[in-house]
Amino acid sequence: MSRLLALFLGGLIGGTILVAPSPAAIAASAADNYRTYCAQCHGLQGNGKGVNIRDMSVQPRNHTDADSMSRRSDDDLFTADKKGGLAINKSVLMPPWRDTLSDAEIHDMVRYLRTLCHCKYNAQ
Amino acid sequence: MRKFLSVLSVLILGAQVAGAPPLAMAASSGMELLQNRCASCHNLTGPAPSTLPVLWARKGPDMFYAGNKYRKDWLVAWLTHPTRIRPAGMFYADHLKPGPERDVVDPSTLAPHMALSPSDARLAAEALMTLRAHDDLIAKENIPPGSISKSMGALVFDKFLGCIACHRVSPDYGGLSGPELYTAGQRLDPRFMASYIRSPQAWDPKIWMPNKHVSDSRIVQLVHYLQALSKGGSHE
User: Fold this and answer.
1) Does B214 map to a domain?
2) Is A28 near chain B, with CB under 8 Å?
3) What domains are defined for chain A?
4) Are the Cβ atoms of B92 and A40 closer than 8 angstroms?
């Protein structure tokens, strides 16, 4: 019986390791979400030059700009993505994505944004 | 002459057997027409895409709730003379290229929609109107008759809610990743407009239109605004 239990637990742990997403898989998922939901305004390359911007009264953030992105905390990025620009006193043109993306996907997105700007939050 | 006629007959019969039958013969009913000519690009049975790859692969709008979405008279007119509703195609990111100032639509990647004969358009529209998934969502909506000035409507649409970012309200003003809305009042059932604004994800879980949690009163204003846009002229 104990051998059976050990086999069961071994299989469970092994299965968990096998199905746990790798960092590369997380990045790919966030990249797919970015291409689907963010690129329309922030641009296919994340440079703030999306197809929609010509008539927007406030231009979308350039996610590749390390200077401006390093002044945004990860919490701010998460909140803006989840609840929209108004939640961090920014534009209504940045919509809330909480009905589209899960919290886990938004956390992945914040990590993905840091890869676009090659920067971290700098409170200075 | 007789020999020429017999050769001609053989050619005509041969062509019918070998190729597609004449359209009038193929469409013995509207539903057959939909199956034969529309189903390769439009989902007639549901469900809507639940993953991004399926969303990206979609060639045309889902039609399994067409009877709750479209106005029949618009369908007939549009199917005989189709015009582009989605300026950047079905999935916008597949039809963009980098431009000097911003990403731009690459028109060479966009294919026109086929036109139907007036009789086939009527058959197709009648069949489409029988496809009524999500009756429950439509039943929750009630848009009272009313109007809104275009200036007030524009304020709500542009400034308060930011819908202008993705949708055009005239042929040359507004965003490009969503369908144009200056013909939406002619095209769409008012209760569908209300329900879709209330929750795009209830109709299309992976769509790139966000749920902005629009209040009931704002939804009514938006629907009246879209109806005003379609009527043309001044509604100040």
Assistant:
1) yes
2) no
3) 22-117 (1.10.760.10)
4) yes
- Nearest chain B residue to A55 by CA: give it: B174
Q: Closest partner residue to B201 among A50, A96, A100, by Cβ? A: A100
Is A83 in the B-facing interface, judged by CB distances under 8 Å? no
- Tell whether the torsion through CA atoms of B47, B169, B187 and B142 is positive or negative: positive
Q: Is residue B94 part of a domain?
A: yes
Inter-axis angle of helices A103-117 and A23-33, nearest 10:
90
Q: What is the ipTM metric for this complex?
A: 0.86
Tens digits of per-residue pLDDT, B146-186?
Answer: 999 999 999 999 999 999 999 999 999 999 999 999 999 99
Q: Is A46 on the interface with B (CB under 8 A)?
A: no
Q: Which contiguous run of DSSP H or E holds residue B219?
A: helix B216-231
Instruction: Answer whether residue B125 is part of any domain.
Output: yes
**What is the pTM (predicted TM-score) of this model?**
0.85
**Domains in chain B, number:** 1
Domain assignment of residue B194, given as a range = 28-231
CA distance B160 to chain A (A): 7
Grouping H, G, I as helix, E, B as strand and the rest as coil, residue A39 is helix
